[in-house]
């Protein structure tokens, strides 16, 4: 070997070593994930909807990549669980969107855990919808900072009661404007270290509320693009949703400008997607299905991702992908290991996003809700029990070709049955009481959503999530919560109540496993219902809300174990006892 060659070899080795060291020393990318609620694929101008303009969201596609066929779940909490865990939601135990069925199995590790272990500052801002009490609370699932609400939906979007790291606070102004303010504060606070920021906005989920300046444009708007069945479209709802979507875009613009101001844009991965199909009949590209459906329109979400200098600008990825892929993809892009000890259902999309994929294999992505299952391949969607559609040729799913292609139908039917056999047995049958008494978060919130009414007591609305208990008209009535106390100790009990002056004087008792305390409803508190003054259309299922008053009952001695926390009346001098929104138990000693 010549001296020159040796010198060149040493130089090449030095350059390689230097490059390796530089790569290892390169700053980890920040991650900003924006997830909207009930916004369908068609609710963005980048996807061809000329009824509205979403330039800030659209800019993520022009400056980054668009996944053309990206799939989520038919409803909210399952999609969130799949994003958080990289696994199909039945593996986490998700079987409902309320009353505890939205909680993830505690054995699951989340994307927040993965980034926190890697040294990231982690924050979540918005609608959590995967558990309220510790250790289901977002602060227990990998997120250092949390501001928002943990329920499935909320009753009023202006100055609402919210949760800040487990404590009750009052929001300021329109809810997602307020969430955005807190996201920007988090980003600024952590601008000198890598951060992972999850922003699950709760709009355009109903109630249909939006600030006047956004609604004014659409108050009398006649949309040119309509639902595939236009006679069934509710135009008043469409107008409100369009306004809410433009408000979302305005807030996305605020976040992108903040990254620019802090000179963080070049090293921040920004993702935008939605949690299910549209929450109503409106333009959605002619697809069949909406929220709640396992058809294409119920599970196809927009997906935009930007990372300047790394992900090619303007790229459009045709291969199918889904929410289950985001944990492995983001960990791969950040160069950090996934902390989950359980096998993931998702795969890293890194090769597709960076243009390095050569022979990307076809795959199956399954969609499930309420016992209904479909599966998507690159070409077909099979909807059990026996509907097969050629999606490129028939994007509206108008022609079932199962009889024409029995081999394909049989193969996909078999795949669905195998998936169901593996994932669905026992789903919804698990017994997970509501957890109380962890020193990491001494305050436990037990909202009406998680309780059970007995006798005459009923919810203020059919949907439990933002409801309160009313019509408590007898001493035979009661309200119970199935709870499990983790720590023996003294617990201060507080009830958030409402009671008209004429009914003051009831004696109530709160009891659990032999421990009981009594109190008297001694002060009237009869606030009006609120929320309707902000509604653009009549409500579908959400309860109106009240500003309930806290009443301290006293201190209970509780032992570890499971039981029914029972609230009942011993005396009732008036026509009713009280209305109940929330019970708070705080471990004080």
Please provide a written account of the structure.
The protein is an alpha+beta fold. It folds into 3 domains: 24-358, Alkaline Phosphatase, subunit A; 372-423, Arylsulfatase, C-terminal domain (2-Layer Sandwich); 434-587, Galactose-binding domain-like (Jelly Rolls), CATH 2.60.120. Helix content is 23%, strand content 26%. It is built from 12 helices and 29 strands. The strands form 6 sheets. The protein has a 10-stranded mixed sheet, with helices on both faces. A hairpin with a 2-residue loop joins strand 25 and strand 26. It is globular and about 75 Å long.
Stretches with pLDDT under 50, minimum 5 residues: 1-24
Rg over CA atoms, rounded to whole Å, is: 26 Å
CATH topology of the largest domain: Alkaline Phosphatase, subunit A
CATH superfamily of the largest domain, please? Alkaline Phosphatase, subunit A
Describe the largest sheet: 10 strands, mixed
Helix content class:
10-25%
Number of strands: 29
| Strand line-up in the sheet with most strands | 7-6-5-4-8-1-9-11-2-12
- CATH class call of the largest domain: Alpha Beta
Q: CA-to-CA gap between the ends?
A: 77 Å
Strand % is 25-35%
What count of helical segments does DSSP give? 12
CATH-defined architecture of the largest domain: 3-Layer(aba) Sandwich
- Which structural category fits the helices and strands? alpha+beta
**Could you tell me the mean pLDDT?**
95
Total separate domains: 3
Spatial shape: globular
């Amino acid at each position: 070997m010549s001296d020159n060659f040796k010198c060149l070899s040493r130089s090449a080795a030095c350059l390689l070593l230097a490059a390796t060291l530089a790569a290892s020393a390169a700053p980890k990318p920040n991650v900003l994930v924006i997830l909207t609620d009930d916004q369908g694929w068609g609710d963005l101008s980048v996807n061809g909807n000329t009824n509205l303009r979403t330039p800030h969201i659209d800019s993520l596609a022009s400056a980054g990549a668009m996944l053309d066929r990206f799939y989520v779940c038919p409803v909210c909490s399952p999609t969130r669980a799949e994003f958080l865990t990289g696994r199909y939601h039945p593996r986490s135990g998700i079987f409902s969107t309320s009353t505890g069925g939205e909680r993830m199995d505690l054995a699951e590790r989340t994307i927040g855990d993965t980034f926190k272990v890697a040294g990231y500052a982690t924050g979540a801002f918005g609608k959590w919808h995967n558990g309220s009490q510790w250790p289901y609370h977002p602060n227990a699932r990998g997120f250092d900072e949390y501001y928002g609400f943990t329920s499935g939906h909320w009753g009023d979007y202006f100055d609402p009661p919210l949760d800040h790291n487990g404590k009750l606070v009052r929001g300021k102004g329109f809810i997602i404007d307020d969430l955005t303010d807190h996201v920007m504060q988090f980003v600024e606070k952590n601008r000198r270290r890598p951060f992972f920021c999850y922003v699950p906005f709760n709009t355009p989920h109903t109630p249909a509320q939006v600030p006047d300046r956004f609604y004014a444009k659409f108050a009398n708007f006649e949309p040119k693009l309509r639902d595939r069945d236009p006679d069934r479209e509710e135009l008043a709802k469409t107008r409100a949703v369009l306004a809410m979507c433009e408000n979302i875009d305005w807030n996305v613009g605020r976040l992108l400008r903040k990254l620019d101001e802090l000179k963080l844009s070049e090293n921040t991965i920004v993702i935008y997607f939605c949690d299910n199909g549209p929450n109503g009949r409106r333009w959605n590209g002619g697809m069949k299905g909406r929220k709640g459906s396992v058809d294409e329109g119920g599970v196809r979400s927009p997906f935009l991702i930007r990372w300047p200098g790394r992900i090619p600008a303007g790229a459009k990825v045709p291969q199918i992908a889904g929410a289950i892929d985001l944990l492995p993809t983001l960990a791969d892009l950040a160069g950090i290991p996934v902390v989950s000890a359980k096998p993931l259902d998702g795969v890293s999309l890194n090769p597709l996003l960076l243009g390095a994929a050569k022979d990307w294999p076809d795959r199956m992505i399954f969609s499930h809700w309420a016992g209904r299952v479909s599966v998507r391949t690159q070409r077909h969607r099979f909807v059990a029990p026996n509907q097969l559609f050629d999606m490129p040729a028939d994007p509206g799913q108008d022609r079932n070709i199962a009889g024409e292609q029995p081999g394909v139908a049989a193969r996909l039917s078999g795949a669905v049955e195998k998936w169901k056999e593996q994932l669905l047995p026992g789903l919804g049958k698990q017994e997970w009481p509501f957890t109380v008494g962890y020193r990491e978060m001494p305050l436990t919130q037990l909202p009406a959503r998680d309780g059970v009414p007995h006798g005459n007591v009923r919810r203020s609305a059919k949907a439990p999530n933002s409801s309160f208990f009313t019509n408590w008209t007898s001493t035979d009535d009661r309200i119970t919560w199935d709870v499990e106390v983790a720590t023996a100790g003294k617990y201060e009990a507080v009830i958030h109540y409402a009671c008209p002056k004429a009914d003051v004087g009831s004696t109530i008792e709160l009891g659990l496993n032999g421990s009981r305390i009594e109190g008297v409803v001694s002060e009237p508190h009869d606030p009006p219902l609120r929320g309707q003054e902000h509604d653009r259309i009549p409500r579908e299922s959400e309860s109106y809300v009240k500003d309930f008053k806290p009443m301290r009952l006293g201190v209970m001695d509780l032992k570890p174990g499971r039981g029914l926390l029972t609230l009942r009346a011993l005396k009732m001098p008036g026509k009713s006892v009280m209305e109940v929104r929330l019970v708070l138990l705080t471990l004080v000693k």
